[in-house]
Amino acid sequence: MATTTTAAASLTTLSPAAGKRFVLSSPCLSFSSHRLIIAGLCHRHHTVAASRTARRRAASASPVVATITVGDKLPDATLSYFDPADGELRTVTVAELTAGKKVILFAVPGAFTPTCSQKHLPGFVEKAGELKAKGVDKVACVSVNDAFVMKAWKELLGLADGSGVLLLSDDNLELTRALGVDMDLSDKPIGFGVRSRRYALLADDGVVKALNLEEGGAFTTSSAEEMLRLACSGPGACNAERAIAYGFCGLHAVDQVRC
Hints:
EC number: 1.11.1.25
Order of helices and strands: EEEHEEHEHEHEHEEEEHHEE
Active site: 116
Low-confidence stretches: 1-62, 233-259
Domain Thioredoxin: 68-233
Helix content: 25-40%
Number of strands: 14
Strand content: 15-25%
CATH architecture of the largest domain: 3-Layer(aba) Sandwich
Keywords: Antioxidant, Oxidoreductase, Peroxidase, Redox-active center
Largest sheet: 5 strands, mixed
Family: Belongs to the peroxiredoxin family. Prx5 subfamily.
């Protein structure tokens, strides 16, 4: 069996080469009659790989946390949309959208994606009337897609102008980053880049009363059904424990209305 020797000479020293193969000796090289191993580089490669794996595991174990939280005032940002009334491209600020109103904002990672197209947006369209009956003045869907993509998505789904859900573009990620819900998917093979996490929030006069933020690609707590359960209609009509946890009942502050 061939024996392995570790070279200890400097980089300028050559092994005897009279009629034989020779290698450039180095403290970080080891060689045998069958192979040459760059020990230092191999060690460094495994160390970096292990470090990356540890970081990924730590990130996956961490809870998803947004910058915004219940009780905070929504940050202002400018969003664009096609006005259902006349089809014109317009802009609206978060402050204008929420001033003096009870508004549900829900975000999707991307227009035309399966869960967003088959469940998330259609769910809010279906429940828009019930949410309005519970006191919600406006329901809006936010995505980082541009306004033209959002318009095409709406048309593909066959949503009427009176669907009850306003589709808003946050194509500069102004609101998404201010809320702290942006996620970088640049390492994915689908070419998404930076997107918004899926969430649903309820704001009363611009103050967040409820926030359901999903982890990863999950769709469990940001549905229209869940927001409808949170939006109780008045005294005695909602679960007191849930109302206290989320800070509102009948879309009013808990200290104003007893459930």
